[in-house]
Amino acid sequence: MALREQSYLILLALSEGPLHGYGVIKAVRELSEERVRLGAGTLYGALDRLSGDGLMAVVKEEVVAGRHRRYYDLTGHGRAVLAEETARLARLAATAQRRLNLRPASEA
């Protein structure tokens, strides 16, 4: 299952454990080196899709300073899909390095 970049980054952000919405936004920004900035509408639409696909789920809800906060985490299926997509991207990057006659980053 190929993932859109935003979905991949959201799942990757959740790979270290549950996060609330703003935590996901911050993690995606960091993971993408400031290139991907999710707005609330985009984030929650993606979370709804990922949840509907069984890749992540709400694992905790609380009220903080009068605001409702939900925490999201990967499901086992989500972790497997994330691992498969990571392997696919690694193969693609290796192919690109060969075609461009580049040395892998680890050798540079």
TrEMBL record:
Residues 10-84 form the Transcription regulator PadR N-terminal domain. Coiled coil: none annotated. It comes from the Bacteria. InterPro entries: Metal_resp_DNA-bind_regulator, Tscrpt_reg_PadR_N, WH-like_DNA-bd_sf, WH_DNA-bd_sf. PANTHER family: PADR-FAMILY TRANSCRIPTIONAL REGULATOR. This is Transcription regulator PadR N-terminal domain-containing protein.
